[in-house]
Amino acid sequence: MQAFCCHRAGYTLNQANPPVDTPVFIDQPCRTSGFRLLLRQVSNAHRATIDRNNMMKEKQAWFKPLLDNVVREMIKTGAIRGAAVEAAPIWGSPGNLLIAKVWDASNKSQFIWTIAGDNAVTDHIPGSLAANAQAAARHFALKWQMDADRLLQVAKNKAPAKDSDGNMEAYTSKLIGYAEALYDLAGRDDIWKSR
User: Fold this and answer.
1) Domain of residue 14, residue span
2) What is the pTM of this model?
3) Please, where are the H alpha helices in the chain?
4) Count of domains in the chain?
5) Does residue 118 fall inside a structural domain?
6) Of 57, 79, 98, which residue constitutes the final position of a domain?
7) How far is CA 70 from CA 7, 100, 156, 170, in A?
8) pLDDT digits (tens, 9 = 90+) for 160-179
9) Helix 133-157 to helix 162-186 angle, to the nearest 10 degrees?
10) Interatomic CA distance for residues 64 and 56, integer angstroms
11) How far apart are CA 39 and CA 35, in angstroms?
12) How far, in Å, are 23, 70, 195 from residue 46 at the CA level?
């Protein structure tokens, strides 16, 4: 429910994100001029609510199939077990990156952090390793950097093979790029608080 009240020439929004068809209630009497201003601002707020709802639908259209794929992969690899598995998107940048929690429905406290997207490798860590999505992102970045270093060591110690070396080097370079970009992203506190 959304309630507006007049305060001199403006209004305050007591609750945000109402459903589009929710009626707007004015909880304090207003002077005539204030009432006109209020109606204009209610109209703008209603438009903003519709825009917010459309944005949420677009975000859901992006993250729902990605989250479904992540859950399938976590079950397939044995990272999560159970008859019923649940997942929740925690942080995302549509089209780029999604950080989510996945857990067995019978034990929500034992979750795993997952990461996936066009600019990430699908991966997971135990929930106990990170307190929030930002810490999970930082952990994934460091993990990927260490994985890339291990791959480089394996490539150096291995007998040269034409096809596999090129693929391993390309994958390692890609992993390093993802790790560096994610680490930079994890260091930006402003984007983690606003989402």
Assistant:
1) 2-57
2) 0.68
3) 32-76, 133-157, 162-186, 189-193
4) 2
5) no
6) 57
7) 48, 9, 32, 24
8) 665 555 688 888 999 999 99
9) 160
10) 11
11) 6
12) 10, 35, 21
Distances (CA, A) of 55 to 24, 51, 64: 21, 6, 14
Judge whether 149 and 104 are in contact, CB under 8 Å.
Answer: no
Residue at 175 is within a domain: yes
- Would you give the end-to-end CA distance of the chain in angstroms? 22
Domain assignment of residue 14, yes or no: yes
- Eight-state DSSP code of residue 127: G
Buried-exposed string 28-55: b where 16+ CB fall within 10 A, e elsewhere: eebeeebeebbeeebeebeeebeeeeee
Indicate the Cα dihedral angle 11, 15, 17, 22, nearest 10°: -80
Phi, psi of 83 (to 5 degrees): -70, -35
Among 18, 37, 57, the domain-final residue is 57
- On whether the CB atoms of residues 119 and 181 are closer than 8 A, the answer is yes
**Is residue 96, in this structure, part of any structural domain at all?**
no
Residue in 189, 61, 73, 157 with CA at minimum distance from that of residue 120: 73
pLDDT digits (tens, 9 = 90+) for 25-58: 333 333 433 333 333 444 444 454 455 666 677 7
User: What pLDDT is stored for residue 94 in this prediction?
Assistant: 84
User: CA–CA separation, 160 vs 79, rounded Å?
Assistant: 33
